[in-house]
Amino acid sequence: xTDSADARxxxxxxxxxxxxxxxxxxxxxxxxxxxxxxxxxxxxxQAVAGHAATPPAxxxxxxxxxxxxxxxxxxxxxxxxxxxxxxxxxxxxxxxSAGTLALLVEDTATEVRAAxxxxxxxxxxxxxELILRLARDTAMLVAEPVIRHSPLLTEADLLGLVAEPPVxxxxxxxxxxxxxxxxxxxxxAETADVPAVxxxxxxxxxxxxxxxxxxxxxxxxxxxxxxxxxxRRHQLPARAARALGAIVTDHLLxxxxxxxxxxxxxxxxxxxxxxxxxxxKEPAEDAEAVLxxxxxxxxxxLLLSKLAEAAGxxxxxxxxxxxxxxxxxxxxxxxxxxxxxPLAAEVQVVLGGLSPPEVVHPTLEGSWALGExxxxxQAELLEGLPA
Length: 387
Description:
By secondary structure, the protein is an all-alpha fold. Among the domains are: 209-280, no CATH class; 285-382, no CATH class. Helices cover 63% and strands 0% of the residues. It is built from 26 helices and no strands. α13 (169-175) runs parallel beside α15 (194-202), α16 packs parallel to α18 and α24 (327-336) packs across α26 (372-382). The radius of gyration is 27 Å and the shape is elongated. It starts with a helix and ends in a 5-residue tail after the last helix.
């Protein structure tokens, strides 16, 4: 591989943009890339880190670069080479590249480790030790792609992550994995970890024993987020649906009654219960009308207490959610409370102190602008806030 005179000149005398352009050229030689690896401009070193012809020894030096973007680019490239490590494990290139990857997987920058996880998360031939290390990372940006997708994680590995999660969110990542068997789902259910169980119930491919589902229905009485997932769960047994019908809030009872897969007599009973609840409400006592009036009056205390009560959480957790100053988070909390999208918009302003551009507004028809999955996910995230 021979560099052109123009490339050599640009590498030595050009500005940073020109030097980076040389480092990105496919035909640039390993010798010139080695020279550019010591460039003072991070954008040039980043281009060298991502180049396929950069010598393994040079890559090893770049693994200690002071710029995280350089190390991230290197991590992406080296991680993509993982399948080739096994073809010549004793070769110098493979050994140096594997050593570089070992350094990068311990990098203090989350973005660097996340680049590795994104590259190897679904590889069937990645080193098992690497996968286990990434799965136990405390940053979910790193761990989640591996936990959810790696074919190398065994049932025993998943049970270990559930029993001793590096961080609470680890269990939720396991719960979202496709094709979970009953042994793992039982283990998740036993933890009573609120966001993890909610994610498990929302996972259509997770196999959950009927007895386990019954226990979760009982436990959902004080956990509205579980109820929201249960009423929408694929193949909900009739016994669980009957039990849910006795405890869920009005808007979830309507969702349950609208299912098409329940026995006809149960559906009729649920719809009758919905009608009875609607008939029992006097127009003058419409709950949302009272809440809208409180919002217009700026009655923060009333809105706060009613939201906590309807969502089944403490006022401290509502305050913690409001402190995030996230319209989506407040909307998710209002949705789990069974409140409408227009009322949620008022709550974001009065309780959250958000400006109009920050508010998640309803659609023109008055429905939620966010999808059901997004609203549920936002509510799940709040479960980790102080209670």
